Amino acid sequence: MKAKTISISNQKGGVGKTTTAINLSAGLAITGKKVLLIDLDPQGNATSGLGISNDKFDYNIYHVLIGRKTIKRATINVREFAIDLVPSDISLIGAKIELITSESRESLLKDAISKSSDSYDFIIIDCPPSLGILTINALVASDSVIIPVQCEYYAMEGVAQLLNTIRLVRATYNATLDIEGFLLTMYDKRNNLSIQVANEMRQHFSGKVFSTHVPRNVRLSESPSFGKPVIYYEEKCAGAQSYLALTEELLSEAS
Ligand SMILES: Nc1ncnc2c1ncn2[C@@H]1O[C@H](COP(=O)(O)OP(=O)(O)OP(=O)(O)O)[C@@H](O)[C@H]1O
Ligand SMILES: [Mg+2]
Questions:
Q1: Quick check: CB of 199 below 6 Å from ligand 1?
Q2: Which ligand is nearest the CA of 11, by number?
Q3: Distance between CA atoms of residues 141 and 71, nearest Å
Q4: What CATH number does residue 200 fall under?
Q5: Model pLDDT for residues 149-188, shown as the tens digit of each residue
Q6: Are strands 83-86 and 76-78 parallel, antiparallel or unpaired?
Q7: How many domains does one find in the chain?
Q8: The domain containing residue 39 runs over which residues?
Q9: How far is the CA of 18 from the centre of ligand 2 (A)?
């Protein structure tokens, strides 16, 4: 069967995309799903967050996009967490320039993924904080998109722009691209603003916001520096529990 491919995207920086990509991947893997995590950000945070430093790989998503390596050849099997990873590093910045002159530049990732799609249940793509050619490639390649929204000032800023990009991708390359859901992140129940943002989002995007929200939780911010998804760092913490709940919610919707 073909994998379900989900982009984690928001052009706003620091809203919890990578945290979601890593911990949702780990949650799905722990339920026995076969998961490929694609790091599509030159910052390489999903890669380092799984404890993979860039001296551990010769090829990365850049080599896949420029057609030099297959996904399979660029994949690292991170056995500890039962996750397959296509890593990224700063060389991906070069791809942006090279891709712009390439002919089918919007569907390079989709074409690359199609050859590996049968091997997985889920392919999760961690997008960079921009709406450039990398994110377009992710959206063209995906069945759906999860949009993390930080429960902070200006949370909804930029969401309209992202929705426009999704509309554009639907109209041109990927008519069936679905919004899997908005995910409220860094929620602080003691903070009125968090409650306000959550209420606004649920009103404005009724039925499209995951019931699970991710609390602000220091364990979530510590675990990447230990190279671990949070469930392998401190399973009982609120952050870990929220990502397990998100995994369940996603799986129950998918079935
Ligand atoms: N729920 C949370 N509670 C506390 N800290 C969090 C939470 N989610 C993410 N963080 C921390 O906030 C920072 C930004 O998170 P993350 O890297 O996941 O965002 P991002 O959207 O991927 O950022 P970028 O746009 O730079 O790729 C990181 O230091 C991360 O550890
Ligand atoms: Mg990130």
A1: no
A2: 1
A3: 13
A4: 3.40.50.300
A5: 999 878 888 899 999 999 999 999 999 999 999 999 999 9
A6: antiparallel
A7: 1
A8: 4-254
A9: 4
